Structure formats: C-alpha cells, structure tokens
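Lab notebook, bench 4. We co-purified these components, and the gel suggests they stay together. Before we commit to crystallization screens, I want a quick structural picture of the whole thing.
Request: model the full complex, all chains together.
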Amino acid sequence: MLAQVIFYALAALTVGSAALVAFSRNIVYSTFALLGAFMGAVGIYILLAADFVAMVQLLVYVGGILVLTIFAVMLTAGIGDVKVSNRAVGTGPAIIVAGVAAIVMLYAVMRTQWHQAAVFTPAPTTYAIGNAFLGDYVLPFEVASLVLLAALIGAIVISRHEVRE
Amino acid sequence: MHTLIQNLIAWGVFGKNPPRDLVAAIVVFVMSLIVFLVVALPFGGIVTWVERRVWARIQSRVGPNRVGPQGFLQWLADGIKIICKEDIIPDEADSRLFKLAPYLVMLAFILPWAVMPFSSSLILADLNVGILYMTAVTALTVVGVLMAGWASNNKWSLIGGVRSAAQIVSYEIPAGLSIFPVVLMTGTLSMQGIIRGQGWAPQHWFLFANPFTFVAANILYMSSLAEANRTPFDLPEAESELVAGFATEYSGWRYACFSMAEWGNLFIVGAIITTLFLGGWQFPHVTNNVVAMNVLEVITFTVKVLFLVFVSMWIRATLPRVRIDQLTTACWKYFVPISFVNMIGTAVWVAIWPDGNVAIGYIMFAGAIVFGAVFIQRVIYYLRRSRMEVYLNPTI
Amino acid sequence: MSAVSEYVHNIKDTVSTIFEGMAVTASHFMRKPYTVQYPDRMPVRVQDTLPFRYRGILDVDLEICTGCLACERACPIDCIVIVAEKDQQTRQLLLSQFDIDIAKCMYCGLCSEVCPTGSIHHTTEFEGADYSLESLIRRFVQDPVMAYKAKKGPETDPRIAPILNRGMAYLDQWAQPGGEKPPGEEPA
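Here is the predicted assembly.
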C-alpha cells in the first residue's frame, strides 16, 4: 500500500518533470527540470531495491550529465533569445503519429503477460552486478568502453592545438 | 539502527504489538531530526567561530571573543542577525529558481548525514552503497550553485556558478578514483563495512596500508576541499574577483543556507576521510558496556573529524588561492593520473597480499611519526628565529 | 625524459613548499597575539599611557583663568566663546560665560600656546562620542566667577598654587619643543 503511494508519487515527479522539460518555453527551465526527472528515476530504482544502479544514476546523471548540460546551456550565447526553441512544428501530423504510437503501445501493454515477482527481497546487488560485468558480459562491457575511448580520442582531436613549427 | 528499533519494540517502549513499519519510520524520522538539529546545523555555525579564532591566532590577532565565554556564542549572534536581515530578491532575477537554489544546496548538505557512521550502532542508515551515496549526494550541491548563479542574473554570480560547476565536476573524478583503493581492499561500499575492515591502531588504518592508499588519502582530501569550495580552491567565490560568487545577490535566510552548507560540508569532508582512511570510530575494546563503548566511539570519530576540519582551516590560513589554469592543471595532469596509478597499484598489492601486509603498516606509521617530528622541528626553528613570545593558551 | 623529471620535480616542489608554509603558519599559531583589546580589556587605560602634551579634548582651570581673551582671539575657527566684563561695584573682571564647542575644535593647540597661565589646556582624554551636538559644547562657567589676577611673587593660596604650577609646567613644555619633562610630572 505504502509502496504503491510512493511509486505513484515518484512516477508523477518523473513524468511531470519530463513534461516540463519537453514543454517549457525556457531552455534553462527545461534543463533544471531534468533534475526532477533524474531524481524520480533514482527513487524508482531505490523502490525496486536496485541500490547500486540508483546511486550510479545519481552520480552519473545528476552529478555529471545534468551539470554538463546546464554548463553547455549557460555557455550558449543569449539564453534569453532561446525562449521559443521548443515551439511545436507540424502539430497535425505529430498528433496522428503520436496517437497511432500510443494505441500500439497500449495494445502491447494489455496483451503482455506481465511476470509477477513472487517474493520481494531487497538484497545487495553490487556483487551480482560486478560479477556479471567481469564474468558473463565481459565482452560487451569492454566493447562499450572502447566506444568511450573513441569518444575521448575524438574530443582530444577536436580540441587540441595545432602546433606548427 | 534497525537492531535498535527492534530492541525498542521488544522492550515495549511503544506498547504491545505496535505497527512495526510505522514505528520504525517514526523512529528514523525523529532520529534524523535529532542528528540534523543537534549535530549538523549547530556544527555549521560553531565551525565559523572556530575558524575565525584559528585564523586570528595564525595572523597574530585574537578573533571574536566577546559574545559568550571566549566568544562561543558568536555564531548564534551572527545567525540571528543574518535571519533578521531583509530578504532581497532582485527585480531582474528569476525569482522561482532564485528561491529554490538555497534549498537544493541545503539538501545536498543534509542528505550525507544519513550514512554518517558516528559509532558501531549510531548510524541512521548503513546503506550497502554508503560511500557511493555520500559522493553522489554531495554532487547535488553543484546543481544548486549553478541554479543560484544563473537565477541571480548577475555576471559575478554566473561566473561563480560556472566556475564551481567546472571545478566540482572535474575534481569528482580524482575523488571517486581515490575511493576505489579502499573499496578494493575491503570489498564493500558500506561505511560500517569499510570501518570494520580497519583496526583502532594507526598501523591498521588504510592510510598506512600501503603507499598507494597513503597517496590516495591525500588526493581525496585535496579533491574534497576543491569540491567544498575551500581555499586554496575557492575560485567560485573569490571575493577579490567575484564579490561573493554565486551568493552575491543573496541575503538573509537564503544566504545563511549557503554559508551554513558550505561550512557544514567541512564536517562531511572530514567524515569521508576518517571513514575511509583513518579507522572511523574504531576504539580498543575496553568495556563490555555497549553504551559506554558507543560513547567512546562517537568521541573517537568526532575527534578525528575535527582534527581534519582544523587542518582545512590551517590550510586556508596558509595557502593563497590558485589560478584557474593551475586548478585544472592540478586536477587533470596530476591528480587524475596519480589516482589511476593508485588504483592499479592497490589492485596489484591486494593480489600479492590478499590479507594486507602488517609490516608495511608499521613501517609507514613509523615514517609518519618521523615526518611529524621533522615538521615539529621546523616549527620550533621558525619560532626560535622570530624570537616571539610563545603563547599556547587558547583563551585570551 | 626531461618531461618526467619536471613532473616529479613539480610534485616535490609542491609538497616541500606546502610543508614549509604549514610550518610557518603553525609557528604563528603559537605566538602571542599583538591585538590590543581597547577599551575594556587593557592592563592600563590608554589615556594614562599618553604623553603630557597630548592634544586631547580641551579643559579649562577657571581658578587661574585671567579672562584675557587671548585664546578666543587665537582660535582660528572660533570655537571658544568667552564673556568677561568689569563688575561696576568691585572693579574686577567677572567671567559669566566660557564655552568651548568640542565638535568644532580641531585640536591645533593655538589657544593653549597663548594662554599666560596655562589655564586652557589639552587633556589626554579623547573619547568624546556623544548622542547630540548640543552636549559637545562644554560650558565651564555655571555661576559668574572672578577672574584670576596674577600676583607679584609666588602664589600663596594653597588651593590655587598646585593648579598654577601645573599650568606653568604645561606652558614650559609648549615653549620647549624638545619636550623636557615638567618637574613632578612623570608620564606613565
């Protein structure tokens, strides 16, 4: 009962903030509203007993990505002029596409046989995640880090000084 | 905390057959309030008084000593004064974000207290991702600071906020990497687990476990100072350039929120270092009385933390503010690579000696004592050279 | 190779300089503060440590004032107001007003220089803060008093003699810029 109340509160926070991100006329408001969306996601992770994922979400998304986004927005020239950046274009076709997508998704949600967890046991997940990363999924894990390495090198190439003799 | 609640229920403090979840929730809530109101908030105030006294003595002054015994109530007087000030919101400011920002900063200051390991049983929540939680929630400060900087609609505020963001985001990397050596050695992220992995004696602390952890402790301390916007890394509020940085336009209660969080963060910095490297609350088992043991442990923990807080004041009185390029150079060229070396070195060390190497602990502790002796010898040299009157009495 | 040695050298430099700096501040931490906790926590009042010739707030010894008005004339900003007139019956000079506006006074010392008896003189008192300008006007004459008349030979009145001695010593000091100590007056 309590868990349900908390879940709906968190869901409202996440969806509400996400809506603010999408509909706000002011890009800075959109960026700060991301905080609410991320925090809602953290709450839902905690509710699902995914403690490690929740903390990493907080550390990476709030501490890193959100801050970098805000940083980028603030370095943009003339924040005041960007107020109309989110103006909707092509409203008619968009409503049709979104409506069709919504019907398909609702249909899928209704038809799926949802798996119900029988017993809810909050247990530490860090060991399991670590073992999975360096055991069964070591190859995808390393490939993903290669992508990051490529991004890193790309950033250095873009930002480095050309030294001409 | 959980066992404490179970015991309280078993002793019948809440009557027969109370609703367990509700009672647990209420107890945790009340305990959080107590920790926050009795420890966190007054600490943020009292430390301002201590800092002013310490600075004053280093600068051959006296410092505030009029309000209460030795000026101890100065923080209360300042607090009452600042709350009575007019709460100004500039016309051109974005008033909604302007009002929200101090509370975000305050939130980032309050949340870490949930995993503060005061003693073996006094901890609000011994999360099994405790240290990760600690670093994650302290990172929330930066959102509040950026919000304040932008909402003030003031160039100084904005520059202060952006500087703070750049600083905190980059110093989070060496700080995070310096936590890993300890996690590698204990195999846990829980605060209590990390403390239980150490002993009460200095040679069993992780500070002296191997050379890599010693370096990691120093890097973590410096990075934490940078994240807490302390001198020599206080560029976001460099008063000679930016007036007061992101807090320029704030006054009254909202300004008090900022400054309280800033000073209170010193305790959190000290607590992180104490937990990870200085043995936390570990105290030799001298009595079987649980309450007495807990009191001793709380005292041990607090003394260690306060020592680190004192060191940060001492650093603030010693070092000048670094330039912004020096700040980023120190982080990216020195702290980050050395942190990686620490991590790999510790991993190799743990692979060679899975149970630790006690002899190294003794050797490093002896080295630290020699270092301290050399330091004291230098201090005596400077005292002799200046032929000044030595006055060790803290009261004046 | 030089890059590596420079890197290590930088780290060594940082550590050693911070070490020395911390030692210096630690030694300062153990020194006695210089601060003088004026006004209430001092071993001696500040007024008692000031020299005899210190130009503080003006004071007048009415017992030895001759009513010559030299000070009133000497004052460049007219902060001294004296009313002195001959009493018709006793044929003596009667002082009915002697006001000094301390708010205007600029402590130039011209009045005390010209005084023949050292009646008007600076004190070592300097704490003149008050809540109104009105109260800064010092009124020395409450009831009209007789002006002092210099006698031929030394002063004999035991009441006036010490005051006159002090006044003359004060004048001597003004006359001697070297600042010899007046007899019997040892500044603390």
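The longest strand of chain C covers residues 93-101. Worth comparing against the SEC data before the next meeting. The CA atoms of residues 16 and 23 of chain C lie 11 Å apart.
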